[in-house]
Amino acid sequence: MHLLVTGGAGYIGSHTCVAAHAAGHTVTVLDNLCNSSAESLARVERISGRRPRLIVGDIADRAVVRSVLDSEKFDAVIHFAGLKAVGESVAKPWEYYQNNVAGTLVLLDELRRHEVFDFVFSSSATVYGNPDPANLPLRETAPLAAVSPYGATKLWLEEVMRSMAAADPRWHFLLLRYFNPVGAHESGLIGEDPSGIPNNLMPYITQVAVGRLKELTIFGNDYPTPDGTCQRDYIHVCDLAEGHVAALAKVRELPGCTAVNLGTGNAVSVAQLVASFEKAVGRPLPHRYGPRRPGDAAACWADPSKARELFGWTAKRNADDMCRDAWNWQSRNPNGYRGA
Ligand code: NAD
Ligand code: UFG
Questions:
Q1: Distance from the CA of 35 to the center of ligand 1, in angstroms?
Q2: Res. 77: pLDDT tops 90
Q3: Residues 253-270 pLDDT 10s
Q4: Which of 22, 76, 110, 174 has an alpha carbon 20 to 30 Å from 296's alpha carbon atom?
């Protein structure tokens, strides 16, 4: 297939380019590089021997999107482009609605004009809001709720796609709800490279381990979980990338709009992830316990059986693999792609 991958220079996008190449697909990336660098695609070439064509542009720029779609014929789109920081979305909601919602509407409009109807969307477990423990593990039928402007953008876009598919049977939408992507390609050439101080657990851990940050604060140890720290469904980014390739193989067979969880089905606590990381690195990680972070759910993990049934896909890598590969990436690239 010839794939248009928006946001393909980013963390999950670059790993998906590698997996798509391994499956024999050709990739064109449309990315405005607002949270990434073209270096990630140079690294993709070092891994897979092929470099995706990069068009530097914004999904909200209709002239750019139109010229990309005029220039080549695409079989399907994987849409990663978007802003993704929950806290930032609370401070800058308009930017999130403009970038994620308005941008995606432009993209979808141009796709229908160009009759490209197979679409894989980066959704998120955030659409389940702060889940009721009675609904764990989360199935795709669990109640949906937005607890941040970021979450609202994912929920609204899912709704846009559901109604567009209901109105026009030519569309095939897969809404892939990622749980907590972590880790890096085993080569250590590509990985997560957040700008500023990381909000998320794994990049915070790796930056402490490499000496960029002093110590990890574990947010809360009084949750109603086995060790008192929050539980999440961490998924290795390469499993996630392979999940996209498995989904692409089925996108045209599945009618309308289908939401599918991509997770491992395992609940791992913050304390357990820290212990796995210490094992991977072979030394203790400086950390202390602090107060809860406002808005955090005690526990959130997936029932991934629908992905297995529909795509024949299951995650293969465990928490030790995730920690080993995250550390391999960070220790080889202490400043991420900067300095490359
Ligand atoms: P990322 O920031 O590394 O990648 C997003 C890419 O999109 C970046 O390269 C950025 O430059 C690009 N981009 C952003 N806005 C754009 C625009 N208007 N036009 C063109 N390019 C634009 O993030 P990621 O972790 O790879 O996430 C990819 C997608 O997966 C996002 O939609 C995110 O919301 C979703 N997601 C991520 C996580 C996670 O924890 N990483 C979890 C659930 C869902
Ligand atoms: N945590 C710490 N210390 C830190 C950072 C995080 O203890 O310095 C804890 C959090 O309190 C939470 C766990 O680590 O218990 C995971 O936190 P992350 O920020 O890594 O991930 P979240 O589960 O909060 O959020 C992620 C994505 C969101 C997405 C959500 C649901 O960042 O975009 O999963 O998919 F909405």
A1: 8
A2: yes
A3: 999 999 999 999 999 999
A4: 174
For residue 340, pLDDT beyond 90: no
Residues whose CB is less than 8 angstroms from the CB of residue 158 and which lie 6 or more positions away in sequence, other chains included? 121, 123, 127, 144, 175, 257, 259
Picking from 188, 190, 204, the residue whose alpha carbon sits closest to that of residue 285 is: 204
Q: What value does the mean pLDDT take over residues 1-17?
A: 98
d(CA 46, ligand 2 centre) in Å: 31
Point out the ligand 2 atom lying closest to the alpha carbon of residue 179: 35
Phi, psi of 71 (to 5 degrees): -80, -25
pLDDT for res 108: 98
Pocket residues for ligand 2 (CB within 6 Å)? 84, 86, 124-126, 179-180, 199-201, 204, 216-219, 230, 232, 270, 293, 296
- Largest Cα–Cα distance of the chain, in whole Å? 57
pLDDT for the residue 263: 98
For residue 154, the ligand 2 atom closest to its alpha carbon is: 36
Judge contact between 265 and 302, C-beta under 8 A: yes
Out of 5, 11, 329, give the residue to mutate to test ligand 1, the one with the largest number of ligand atoms within 8 Å of its CB. 11
Q: What sections of 49-148 are H helices per DSSP?
A: 62-71, 86-91, 93-96, 103-113
- Say whether 83 sits in a helix, a strand or coil: coil
Question: Bridge-partner residues for 173, per DSSP?
Answer: 119, 257
pLDDT average, residue stretch 94-101: 98
| Residue pLDDT, tens place only, 280-313 | 999 999 999 999 999 999 999 999 999 999 999 9
Ligand 1 contact, 12 CB (< 6 A): yes
Q: What are phi and psi of 287, to 5 degrees?
A: -155, 160
In the numeric block, which tokens belong to residue 251? 């996108």
Q: Which residues are catalytic?
A: 150
**322 closest CA partner among 204, 211, 181, 177:** 181
What order do you get walking across the sheet with 2-6 strand by strand? 53-56, 26-31, 2-6, 76-79, 118-124, 172-178, 256-262
